[in-house]
Amino acid sequence: MTDAVPAVFRQVPMPASAGPKDDEPGKGDTDTGTITKTRPKTKRPSLYRVLLLNDDYTPMEFVILVLQDVFNKSREDAMQIMLHVHQKGVGECGVYPYEVAETKVTRVMDTARKNQHPLQCVMEKQ
């Protein structure tokens, strides 16, 4: 009984000494060398701190909700950040690559404006 795979598709190992014959294409190709794979050196992106600034008008509960919604903070973490902002005047919400930081600042500012609060959010290079 023969194998189900036709002979044309079977792989036959070649002896190590087998190479191109005189009448085959490739005869005379004598260039040999080592192929090396170069890895591109990627530079880590610059990181930016996203900061909330204190004001005397934005309710603390609103700040907590923004921290939970925009920065995915737990209620406890959001409370700690909000209290830090309230006591020190400024607090860090997170550190992100430029585009992410910019998006988070925009989301905070848009949410604050939509809810008529003067909350300020900025980003600075780390």
From TrEMBL:
<feature type="domain" description="Adaptor protein ClpS core">
    <location>
        <begin position="43"/>
        <end position="121"/>
    </location>
</feature>
<dbReference type="Pfam" id="PF02617">
    <property type="entry name" value="ClpS"/>
</dbReference>
<feature type="compositionally biased region" description="Basic and acidic residues">
    <location>
        <begin position="20"/>
        <end position="30"/>
    </location>
</feature>
<dbReference type="InterPro" id="IPR003769">
    <property type="entry name" value="ClpS_core"/>
</dbReference>
<dbReference type="GO" id="GO:0030163">
    <property type="term" value="P:protein catabolic process"/>
</dbReference>
<keyword id="KW-0645">Protease</keyword>
<protein>
    <recommendedName>
        <fullName>ATP-dependent Clp protease adapter protein ClpS</fullName>
    </recommendedName>
</protein>
<keyword id="KW-0378">Hydrolase</keyword>
<comment type="subunit">
    <text>Binds to the N-terminal domain of the chaperone ClpA.</text>
</comment>
<dbReference type="InterPro" id="IPR022935">
    <property type="entry name" value="ClpS"/>
</dbReference>
<dbReference type="GO" id="GO:0008233">
    <property type="term" value="F:peptidase activity"/>
</dbReference>
<comment type="similarity">
    <text>Belongs to the ClpS family.</text>
</comment>
<feature type="region of interest" description="Disordered">
    <location>
        <begin position="1"/>
        <end position="42"/>
    </location>
</feature>
<dbReference type="InterPro" id="IPR014719">
    <property type="entry name" value="Ribosomal_bL12_C/ClpS-like"/>
</dbReference>
<dbReference type="GO" id="GO:0006508">
    <property type="term" value="P:proteolysis"/>
</dbReference>
<comment type="function">
    <text>Involved in the modulation of the specificity of the ClpAP-mediated ATP-dependent protein degradation.</text>
</comment>
